[in-house]
Amino acid sequence: MGLSRLFLLALLSLRTLAEDPPESPSQSPALSVQISTSFPSSEIFGVKLVNAVSTLAVLSMTNNEPSPINVVFIGGSLWTLPDMPSSPPTPQIVRNLTTTRYNDVSIPAGEKESVEYRFKTELQPQDLLLNLAVVVTDEKGEPFTIPAFNETVAVVERDTSIFDPQIIFLYLFLLALFAGTIYFIYSTWIATLFPQSASKKRGGGKDASRARASTKGNRKVDPADQMGVAGTDGAPAVASGAKAAAAAAYDESWIPEGHLQRPGAKRVK
Fold first, then answer.
1. pLDDT, position 129
2. DSSP for 52-92?
3. What is d(CA 47, CA 36) in angstroms, rounded to the nearest whole number?
4. How far, in Å, CA of 101 to CA of 165, rounded?
5. For 65-88, what is each residue's pLDDT tens digit?
6. For each successive 10 residues of the chain (269 residues), what is the average pLDDT?
7. What span, in angstroms and rounded, lies between the C-alpha atoms of 210 and 199?
8. Pairing mode, if any, of strands 48-50 and 143-156?
């Protein structure tokens, strides 16, 4: 029950800090704790919050109390700048940041401890006021809200690179879409304007080429190996090779002379 009450008080403290305009003090008058916040990825020109990229803030806390303290929550918010032309005269809250809960983070008396806090932004590029706060408890369990950071930051977009996986996937998708469109246009309109070549028509296509390829592989048969074909009377009708030479010696006595004499060529006057 006491733990739930502690968390409720801590969240109410952060909410109150987020709803009220941020102030500059870095020390809490009720608790002697000093906090110094740094951003490892910051540049010499200031802190930049890159959209969709996690920003790391390192909070170095020094406990000047005679008793240990416990870090419970770290949160923050982004505010408008009053000196900007398009901003209202009083700071207005733009976005509440993620509130992170910490367990077993204790800082002994007189010691220094560093705590990391990460958050992301998704805003239009602009200059804003970043306010971070830490909720700690003393040895009695009483919560205290301590301001940790209150300075101007710049919200910027992430730099794009051609080696970014998302950019590569986008290029491949556009290339596939372009190739599909070109193929559709060719097969629908261009292919109908160019008939097939005459060589393919004369060749008969694939069937004719397959037939020619099959005839090239036929082996020539030796005439001496051919067998004769028998006629209707049992005699060989066709002979080849040595059998044809033997059949040439036949009896011509029973053949009429008119059939044996070859007709002479007639002279044309």
1. 94
2. TSPEEEEEEEEE-SSS-EEEEEEEEEEE--TTSTTS-SS--
3. 15
4. 33
5. 999 999 999 999 999 998 777 777
6. 51 55 50 93 86 94 95 94 78 92 93 95 92 93 92 88 77 93 88 62 54 54 52 50 54 69 61
7. 15
8. parallel
Picking from 156, 157, 173, 176, the residue whose alpha carbon sits closest to that of residue 165 is 173
Which residues make Cβ contacts (< 8 Å) with residue 54, sequence separation at least 6?
118, 119, 120
Q: What's the pTM?
A: 0.56
Token output for 213: 């390829």
* CA–CA distance, 77 with 93 (Å, rounded to integer): 7
**Rounded to whole angstroms, how far apart are CA atoms 162 and 133?**
39
Residue pair 115/133 in contact (Cβ under 8 Å)? The answer is no
Counting Cα atoms < 13 Å in the Cβ hemisphere of 56 gives 7
**Residue among 103, 116, 138, 130 at smallest CA distance from 28:** 138
Tokens 């010499």, located at residue: 44
Question: If DSSP codes are grouped into helix, strand and coil, which group holds residue 21?
Answer: coil
Token pair 């806390």 in the structure block, residue: 61
CB of 121 within 8 A of CB of 95?
A: yes
**Of the candidates 76, 77, 80, the residue with the CA atom closest to the CA atom of residue 89:** 80
Neighbour-count burial for 151-170, b at 16+ CB within 10 Å, e otherwise: eebbbeeeeeeeeeeeeeee
**What does the pLDDT look like over 221-246, one tens digit per residue?**
555 555 554 554 555 544 455 555 55
- In the three-class reduction of DSSP (H, G, I as helix; E, B as strand; rest coil), residue 36 is classed as strand
- For residue 259, the model assigns a pLDDT of 67
Alpha carbon distance 114, 130 (integer Å): 19
